[in-house]
């Protein structure tokens, strides 16, 4: 299944087993000099490492591809110009699932004299996805050679390599397109190549197609040749020097809209023909963002064109192929009729992310996948800078909190990993694409920017991008560039140092964040005008009194703080375990981590928290909005770590009644809702009923004043969506009545009525609770050409309380026709969220593991979502045991993922949380109930 079959050579069973055995030992220790490999035909394979040798490097690929969208296969050929660095007798290339027909070699002289190529002996080693080309005579160092390979393959079924995607027209016709997706290690599925990011080369691509199709690739088309029989052949301009994972080509029948940036780059949005009216927002956004990046990086986008294409079947959210970015439809297409403000936020964010990659990732690439954060952390961080500048009305600052908060949950588990971590096998490499690379990477960059100052940070990254253009870089290169600039603010200790010392200081500081896992907790104690501060590793679910609690870690933390007596931002770098700071004047409270820019949590010992809570209740506006969000977040995290009692965190949220900032209200609400779901899932009904009543009472005024419309600022609209969804989920009668009314009108209008987009999902979800409504929604799901709408319908369908309906959804998801396979992981996630569906999907995943693995790679984001979404909400010892057993059985079959440990630790954390906090929650709610009764007595 993973082999490059060489024509005329057959694979016998004994060799296959032999190869597998060899592969296992190589995977465990690829550097073992005693290791050896055997090719599929039984001959010795001359290379036993997972990484390619450096003796030969590629300079240029001439690639010809002819896909047949009827027979679903392709024939292809390539000519790779190589430079030999060290004399060698073989060339090793990556290759997977391709059939090699012929391979020849020419020297420069041969090529000049038009001498035919010498036939090469090809060996295949599927375990490492490699082939060896054995040359008759040694290749000499410093000479160039030309390797020509003819090969063929099938269009893949999944989402990797050169694969098939289908879409349905408004008239119900199914059409096929062929598209590539190569990151991280799948270019080898489309053409034999040096498939490692360090082997950058130029690519000249030719694609043969039928006249009803168009072909797209990284570069603009330079000419089209008409062939006999009506076929056409497009020739694309040669690319700039780039890594193989960024190569892309598509054969499709899509339409486009285009515009030009101020520097003359042609930007086009492509989608299937019925989606013309959904492409305009993406065009406007990408033009604005490309203009912004060119100015910000002070480097022009180097290609003449940029295409953004919405692919009907796509694995990740999007992929940054140079000049030909591919997206899921939901990440690119904005439908004015059905896309909500959250959809707009998401689309803007993904476009900003992929455009940032054209510099971070494409122009400058990490040397190896262990530093993928240099691509992903930066692209995630640049979203913040670019969207703030181009769409200030989206207040993206407030969105960025969740980028950091999402990873803190993971990073505060023992099973977290450092940002830079060795990764060798394709599964390990895929696992690197996670919250630690993306989110933590972005958050520590944000902290560094706050430390250096905006301008110096920008100067540093411009220096980095210019210095390493068309090359590869590693962590130290980045720290070197950022150290060439000195901090903006007058930090006396740093400024007194010689410049070379500053370089080591930045590197010294940042490696404490990239090379060690986890997040620090800063414990502050105020004693008159003196502050004692201390750092330790923050661990959730492991309490200080537990034997496994250890304070092993030490960070260089750029602390910031302000006090009740002045708004000045004070700075201090905490490098040691403990330190003491003197306050200039007497203050009632101190707040650390100003504007929540730092990647650390803060605990205030003694009366610290009480003073802050009192301040919030008396006049919360004396604390900055971003500090108020930070306090709510840290308080609930401290509860999980056993450092704060739950009633104190809940008391803190009481001030929210006076809060007017929508992002802060959303944060507070999310913690309360989380508690409700935890109780509801566990059927702790006395507590969940009281919580429900508390939530509806507490937010009643806010809920009742919401209009069912799309009016207001971005965050007011998002708050409305969440408040009304929660109200309907909790059975608030006026909410259900209004949603039912709108749903009936929508059904009566045969789905033509325009419902405000921000409440669409709520209306559908309420409608899905009756059988007639559910069936009608499923029909509309099939007909809709708006992915934004389909997403909302699918969510609504998954909220049904009827098991047989949920089973039907899973069946449709597995079948992959009505519900696409690309949406299966999200569907399972949604059903797992439904208390009536959680056990169902958990049983399903266990029973269908092998079938799921046929659809998605083990290390893929989809598989990881399926595993974590069906297990990580468990909170009992029996459930923990069940999950443990399942993971053990998988590991015994050879499937191991880092996420297993993360899930087990999360469940253990949930169990401990309940044991410790359930009695407190129960008592607190009863006390609130009494307050509520008193309130009602006084007011009615
Ligand atoms: Zn990315």
From TrEMBL:
<feature type="active site" description="Proton acceptor">
    <location>
        <position position="354"/>
    </location>
</feature>
<dbReference type="InterPro" id="IPR024571">
    <property type="entry name" value="ERAP1-like_C_dom"/>
</dbReference>
<keyword id="KW-0732">Signal</keyword>
<keyword id="KW-0862">Zinc</keyword>
<feature type="signal peptide">
    <location>
        <begin position="1"/>
        <end position="25"/>
    </location>
</feature>
<feature type="domain" description="Aminopeptidase N-like N-terminal">
    <location>
        <begin position="58"/>
        <end position="246"/>
    </location>
</feature>
<dbReference type="GO" id="GO:0005615">
    <property type="term" value="C:extracellular space"/>
</dbReference>
<dbReference type="GO" id="GO:0042277">
    <property type="term" value="F:peptide binding"/>
</dbReference>
<dbReference type="GO" id="GO:0005737">
    <property type="term" value="C:cytoplasm"/>
</dbReference>
<protein>
    <recommendedName>
        <fullName>Aminopeptidase</fullName>
        <ecNumber>3.4.11.-</ecNumber>
    </recommendedName>
</protein>
<dbReference type="GO" id="GO:0043171">
    <property type="term" value="P:peptide catabolic process"/>
</dbReference>
<keyword id="KW-0479">Metal-binding</keyword>
<dbReference type="Pfam" id="PF17900">
    <property type="entry name" value="Peptidase_M1_N"/>
</dbReference>
<dbReference type="Pfam" id="PF11838">
    <property type="entry name" value="ERAP1_C"/>
</dbReference>
<dbReference type="InterPro" id="IPR034016">
    <property type="entry name" value="M1_APN-typ"/>
</dbReference>
<dbReference type="GO" id="GO:0008270">
    <property type="term" value="F:zinc ion binding"/>
</dbReference>
<dbReference type="GO" id="GO:0070006">
    <property type="term" value="F:metalloaminopeptidase activity"/>
</dbReference>
<keyword id="KW-1133">Transmembrane helix</keyword>
<dbReference type="GO" id="GO:0016020">
    <property type="term" value="C:membrane"/>
</dbReference>
<feature type="binding site">
    <location>
        <position position="353"/>
    </location>
    <ligand>
        <name>Zn(2+)</name>
    </ligand>
</feature>
<dbReference type="InterPro" id="IPR001930">
    <property type="entry name" value="Peptidase_M1"/>
</dbReference>
<comment type="similarity">
    <text>Belongs to the peptidase M1 family.</text>
</comment>
<dbReference type="InterPro" id="IPR014782">
    <property type="entry name" value="Peptidase_M1_dom"/>
</dbReference>
<feature type="binding site">
    <location>
        <position position="376"/>
    </location>
    <ligand>
        <name>Zn(2+)</name>
    </ligand>
</feature>
<keyword id="KW-0735">Signal-anchor</keyword>
<feature type="binding site">
    <location>
        <position position="357"/>
    </location>
    <ligand>
        <name>Zn(2+)</name>
    </ligand>
</feature>
<feature type="site" description="Transition state stabilizer">
    <location>
        <position position="438"/>
    </location>
</feature>
<feature type="domain" description="ERAP1-like C-terminal">
    <location>
        <begin position="589"/>
        <end position="907"/>
    </location>
</feature>
<keyword id="KW-0472">Membrane</keyword>
<dbReference type="InterPro" id="IPR027268">
    <property type="entry name" value="Peptidase_M4/M1_CTD_sf"/>
</dbReference>
<dbReference type="GO" id="GO:0016485">
    <property type="term" value="P:protein processing"/>
</dbReference>
<keyword id="KW-0482">Metalloprotease</keyword>
<dbReference type="Pfam" id="PF01433">
    <property type="entry name" value="Peptidase_M1"/>
</dbReference>
<keyword id="KW-0812">Transmembrane</keyword>
<keyword id="KW-0645">Protease</keyword>
<dbReference type="InterPro" id="IPR045357">
    <property type="entry name" value="Aminopeptidase_N-like_N"/>
</dbReference>
<dbReference type="GO" id="GO:0012505">
    <property type="term" value="C:endomembrane system"/>
</dbReference>
<keyword id="KW-0325">Glycoprotein</keyword>
<dbReference type="InterPro" id="IPR042097">
    <property type="entry name" value="Aminopeptidase_N-like_N_sf"/>
</dbReference>
<dbReference type="InterPro" id="IPR050344">
    <property type="entry name" value="Peptidase_M1_aminopeptidases"/>
</dbReference>
<keyword id="KW-0031">Aminopeptidase</keyword>
<feature type="domain" description="Peptidase M1 membrane alanine aminopeptidase">
    <location>
        <begin position="281"/>
        <end position="513"/>
    </location>
</feature>
């Amino acid at each position: 299944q993973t082999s490059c079959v060489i024509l005329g050579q057959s694979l016998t069973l004994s060799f296959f087993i032999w190869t597998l055995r060899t592969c296992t030992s190589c995977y465990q220790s690829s550097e073992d000099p005693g290791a050896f490999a055997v090719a599929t035909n039984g001959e010795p394979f001359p290379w036993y490492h997972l990484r390619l040798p450096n003796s030969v490097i590629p300079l240029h690929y001439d690639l010809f591809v002819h896909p047949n969208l009827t027979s679903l296969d392709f024939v292809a050929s390539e000519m790779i110009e190589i430079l030999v660095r060290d004399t060698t007798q073989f060339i090793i290339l990556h290759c997977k699932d391709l059939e090699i027909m012929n391979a020849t070699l020419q020297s420069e002289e041969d090529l000049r004299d038009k001498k035919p190529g010498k036939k090469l002996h090809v060996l295949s080693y599927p375990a490492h996805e490699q082939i060896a080309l054995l040359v008759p005579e040694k290749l000499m160092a410093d000479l160039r050679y030309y390797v020509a390979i003819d090969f063929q393959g099938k269009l893949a079924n999944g989402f990797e390599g050169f694969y098939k995607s289908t879409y349905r027209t408004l008239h119900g016709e199914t059409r096929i397109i062929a598209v590539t997706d190569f990151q991280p290690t799948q270019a080898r599925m489309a053409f034999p190549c040096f498939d490692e990011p360090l082997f950058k080369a130029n690519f000249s691509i030719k694609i043969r197609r039928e006249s009803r199709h168009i072909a797209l690739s990284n570069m603009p088309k330079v000419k089209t040749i008409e062939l006999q029989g009506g076929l056409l052949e497009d020739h694309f301009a040669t690319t700039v020097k780039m890594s193989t994972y960024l190569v892309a080509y598509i054969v499709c029948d899509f339409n486009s809209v285009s515009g030009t940036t101020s520097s003359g780059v042609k930007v086009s949005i492509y989608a299937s023909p019925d989606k013309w009216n959904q492409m305009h927002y993406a065009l406007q956004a990408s033009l604005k963002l490309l203009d912004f990046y060119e100015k910000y990086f002070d480097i022009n986008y180097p290609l003449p064109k940029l295409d953004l294409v919405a692919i009907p079947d796509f694995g990740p959210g999007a992929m940054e192929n140079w000049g030909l970015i591919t997206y899921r439809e939901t990440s690119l297409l904005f439908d004015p009729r059905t896309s909500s403000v959250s959809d707009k936020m998401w689309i803007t964010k993904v476009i900003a992310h992929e455009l940032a990659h054209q510099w971070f990732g494409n122009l400058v690439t990490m040397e190896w996948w262990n530093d993928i954060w240099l691509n992903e952390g930066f692209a995630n961080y640049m979203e913040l800078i670019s969207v703030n500048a181009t769409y200030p009305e989206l207040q993206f600052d407030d969105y960025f909190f969740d980028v950091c908060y999402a990873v803190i949950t993971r990073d505060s588990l023992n099973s977290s990993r450092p940002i830079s971590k060795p990764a060798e096998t394709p599964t390990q490499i895929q696992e690197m694409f996670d919250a630690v690379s993306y989110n933590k990477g972005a958050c520590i960059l944000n902290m560094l920017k706050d430390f250096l100052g905006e301008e110096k940070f920008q100067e540093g990254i411009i220096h980095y991008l210019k210095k390493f253009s068309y090359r590869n870089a590693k962590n130290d290169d980045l720290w070197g560039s950022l150290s060439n600039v000195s901090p903006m603010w007058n930090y006396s200790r740093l400024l007194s140092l010689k410049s070379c010392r500053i370089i080591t200081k930045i590197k010294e500081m940042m490696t404490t964040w990239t090379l060690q896992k986890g997040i620090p907790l800063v414990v502050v104690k105020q004693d008159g005008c003196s502050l004692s501060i201390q750092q330790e590793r923050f661990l959730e679910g492991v309490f200080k009194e537990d034997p496994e609690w250890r304070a092993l870690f030490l960070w260089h933390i750029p602390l910031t703080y302000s006090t009740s007596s002045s708004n000045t931002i004070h700075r201090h770098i905490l490098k040691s375990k403990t330190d003491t700071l003197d306050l200039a004047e007497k203050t009632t409270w101190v707040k650390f981590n100003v504007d929540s820019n730092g990647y650390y949590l803060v605990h205030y010992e003694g009366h610290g928290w009480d003073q802050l809570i009192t301040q919030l209740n008396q006049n919360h506006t004396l604390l900055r909005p971003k500090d108020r969000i930070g306090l709510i977040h840290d308080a609930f995290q401290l509860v999980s770590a056993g450092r704060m009692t739950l009633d104190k965190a809940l008391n803190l949220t009481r001030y929210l009644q006076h809060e007017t900032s929508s992002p802060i209200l959303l944060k507070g609400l999310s913690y309360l809702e989380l508690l409700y779901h935890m109780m509801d899932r566990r059927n702790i009904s006395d507590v969940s009923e009281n919580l429900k009543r508390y939530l509806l009472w507490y937010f009643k005024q806010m809920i009742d004043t919401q209009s069912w419309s799309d009016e207001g600022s971005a965050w007011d609209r998002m708050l409305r969506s969440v408040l009304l969804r929660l109200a309907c989920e909790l059975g608030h009668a006026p909410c259900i009545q209004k949603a039912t009314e709108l749903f009936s009108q929508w059904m009566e209008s045969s789905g033509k009525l325009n419902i405000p987009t921000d409440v669409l999902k709520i209306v559908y979800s309420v409608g899905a609770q009756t059988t007639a409504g559910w069936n009608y929604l499923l029909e509309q799901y099939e007909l809709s050409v708006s992915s934004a709408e389909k997403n909302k319908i699918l969510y609504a369908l998954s909220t049904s309380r009827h098991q047989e309906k949920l089973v039907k959804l899973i069946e449709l998801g597995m079948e992959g026709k009505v519900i696409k396979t690309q949406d299966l992981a999200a569907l399972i996630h949604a059903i797992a969220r439904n208390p009536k569906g959680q056990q169902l999907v958990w049983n399903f995943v266990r029973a269908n593991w092998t079938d799921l693995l046929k659809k998605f790679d083990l290390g893929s984001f989809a598989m990881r979502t399926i595993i974590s979404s069906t297990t990580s909400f468990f909170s009992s010892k029996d459930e923990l045991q069940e999950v443990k057993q399942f993971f053990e059985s998988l590991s015994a079959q050879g499937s191991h993922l880092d996420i297993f440990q993360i899930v087990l630790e999360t469940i253990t954390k949930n169990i401990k949380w309940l044991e410790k906090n359930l009695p407190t929650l129960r008592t607190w709610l009863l006390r609130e109930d009494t307050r509520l009764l008193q309130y009602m007595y006084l007011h009615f």
